[in-house]
Amino acid sequence: MSEVQTGTDTGHGGEHVDEERRDFIHIMTGATAAAGVVMFAWPLIDQMNPALDTKALSSLDVDISKIPLGGEARVLVGGQPFLIRHRTEREIAKAREEDSVQMRDPEPDEERLIPGPDGNLRPEILVVSGACTHLGCVPVGPAQGNVGDYGGWYCPCHGSHYDTSGRIRKGPAPTNLPVPDYRYISDTVIQISL
Amino acid sequence: MSGHVSTYEPKSGFTKWLDARLPIVRLAHDSFVDFPTPKNLNYWYTFGGILAVCLMVQIITGIVLAMHYTSTVDQAFASVERIMRDVPYGWLLRYTHAVGASMFFLAVYIHMFRGLYYGSYKAPREVLWILGCVIFLLMMATAFLGYMLPWGQMSLHGANVILNLFGAIPLIGEPIKIWLQGGPSVGNATLQRFFSLHYLLPFMIAGVVILHVWALHVPGNNNPTGVEVKDVKKDTVPFHPYYTVKDAFAIVLFLGVFAAFVFYAPNVLGHADNYIEANPLVTPAHIVPEWYLLPFYAILRAITFDIGPIDAKLLGVIAMFASIGVLFVLPWLDTSKVRSLRYRPVAKQFFLIFVAACLLLGLCGAKNPDDAVFSLGSEKLVVSYTDADGVASERTFGEYSEAVAFEDSLPSAQNPSMSVKPAPAFTFLTLGQLLTLYYFAYFLVILPWLGLKERPKKEPESIAKSVLPKGRNTSLVAVPAE
Fold it and tell me: DSSP strand E in B232-362: where?
């Protein structure tokens, strides 16, 4: 409409035009179309979220009895790397001694462990995420011949050093390697869930 | 230009019939044949045409490669190797596509620096410039998506690093990352959608290129003097044959360089790590993006400090996006009325430093940030031990023999161990931080301030006067050779 008209007025042909009624029809049509677009846009956006089969693959049972002392197992759960370290007595002692040292993300070693089936902590088994908290690279460990300055892991991408409890001690990473959600199914099998 | 009257006259019966229904030949004639173009454009102005060729090469080779490529994690790497070994001329098509990406960026950077130097972003060409920035952004997205497709080590871990940048955004970062990945990690879902989008974006680029050319043809070309066309007859020549031939000559030279890379050094701009199939459990020692993204990667890594509640990681991401975002508002940051840096002697110096800073930022992005640009001393040996009171201590030595003697003198109960302390050095991190500071200062401080303070040299009266020797008749009008 090129002319501004208010309320009830007379149209070009001289017949009666109800402007309020026309506005109502315009607003209803526009609103219905907008709602339709939004309702159709949501499935197009949501389809990019993880699919059901992807979500179903979000836990893994790992046999920890095969991990050699001082060594580690590297597993993928839903494509994310996790490190299961079978720690030596010395590594456990070192992690505990350094509980009181100043750190970027202070956390005692005991709080990074969970009890086994018998209810006692299992200090020899440390499970941490294998994604450096800086930019997600996978740190190297004993099997790759570099455990960093603090005996745990070293991230080759930007030089973050983690100690034998997976705590950040040096380099750009902001936080410790997180301990994932896991539990003991039996003495020798743990289940890691995302 | 907008005020230019169409000179197209359909001759045959068919073209007359078509012109009355779809004047597409008229559009092409007015845009690329009889379009009045400043007569003083130099070879820096040929990169627009070169870029059009680059886009065509990428789209054509890309469509053909997609006929042979499989976008699943189990088959992607093998299908690329099959293209290289078994598909007829597959090696040529893939190398052309991969080298073509580098050539595309080489040309676009020259094109952008040219725009910066001659002030092509200033009124009335702001929208033209912004559309160019949109194309640049789309190019970077396309290149990033495409680099993922061979599913090599660098593909996977590079994508991982970049997607983790989104995770740095507070609260919504993690859900956005999961949404982009289509799962808890970069995997099959990610690869499939990256392929789909990598196919889509070049056509979006082509669309924005049409808008870019349209926005160019409203005010017409800028030129090395920065002086507007005053007299179409004296100041301009028709686009064809003058610039079609000049552009074609430059395109041939450019394709020569392109071919040299494709045939003699197809992998020199890439990374050997990407010929190892992706393995999420092993990260390559040095994750670096392709060369054309290195300056922005250096800016990302230059921010190693927190400011207030914002941590270094998020600040780095903000700085990286801001370094591109600042280009969008450049037309309003440069306060000078004079377009071309030819007539701005001080700004010219700062511009040359800016070009050098961008190149050096690229170097910083490629290097390990902790490596020394130059060393400020020598390496030292540090013996650490637990002293008699149970406190962690250390002593520093310059000579190996002294350090060993001290280490041996300590009882083993004190746990002595020796390590090398690197020499104090001016590192690539520090250099990158200084260059990042200059990058932002150039746009946010130098250009706004200099435009008000600098006394520019006198601009020529007209384009025609600038190209003719003094005292000559300036009413000469170029006539195309028959």
Answer: 236-238
Domain boundaries, chain A: 17-46, 53-193
Residues in chain B with CB shorter than 8 Å from the CB of A173 are none
Q: Does the beta-carbon distance from A54 to B182 stay under 8 Å?
A: yes
> Which residues of chain A have a pLDDT value below 70?
1-14
Looking at residue A11, its pLDDT comes to 52
In contact, B123 and B163? CB cutoff 8 Å = no
Listed residue (A163, A93, A156, A151) closest to A124, CA to CA = A93
| Bridge pairing between strands A16-18 and A59-63 | unpaired
Closest residue, chain B, to A75 (C-alpha): B281
| Distance separating alpha carbons of residues B417 and A150, to the nearest angstrom | 12
The CATH architecture of the domain made up of A53-193 is 3-layer Sandwich (2.102)
Q: Which of B184, B189, B283 has its CB closest to that of A80?
A: B184
**pTM confidence score:** 0.87
- Closest approach of A95 to chain B, Cα-based (Å): 15
Q: Are A62 and A73 spatial neighbours (Cβ–Cβ below 8 Å)?
A: yes
The better pLDDT of the pair B381, B344 is held by B344
**Contact B280/A at CB under 8 A:** yes
Of B348, B350, B367, nearest to B291 by C-alpha is B367
Are B30 and B10 in contact by the 8 Å Cβ rule? The answer is: no
Q: Which residues contact B237 (CB under 8 A, 6 or more apart)?
A: B36, B37, B39, B243, B478, B480
User: Which residues is B375 bridged to in the sheet?
Assistant: B425
For the stretch B380-395, pLDDT in tens is 888 877 777 767 778 8
**Cβ of A170: how many Cβ atoms within 10 Å?**
16
Distance, CA of B213 to CA of B228 (rounded, Å): 18
Structural element, H or E, at residue B393: strand B392-397
Give me the half-sphere count of Cα atoms (radius 13 Å) on the Cβ side of residue B18.
Answer: 13
Residues A167, A151: contact at Cβ < 8 Å?
A: no
- Which residues, 6 or more positions from A164, have their beta carbon under 8 angstroms from its beta carbon? A85, A87, A91, A92, A94, A95, A126, A150, A151, A152
From A173, which residue of chain B is nearest by alpha-carbon distance? Answer: B313
From chain A, pick out residues whose CB is under 8 angstroms from the CB of B183.
50-51, 54, 78-79
**SS3 state of residue B294:** helix
What are the chain A neighbours of B283 within 8 Å (beta carbons)?
137-140, 155-157
10 Å Cβ neighbour count for B152?
Answer: 25
- Find the radius of gyration of the CA atoms of chain B: 28
Q: Are B37 and B239 in contact (CB under 8 A)?
A: yes
Residue in this structure with the two tokens 């002392």, named with its chain if needed: A69
Residue B478's pLDDT is 54
Of A74, A135, A137, which to mutate for an interface test with B (greatest number of B Cβ within 10 Å)? A135
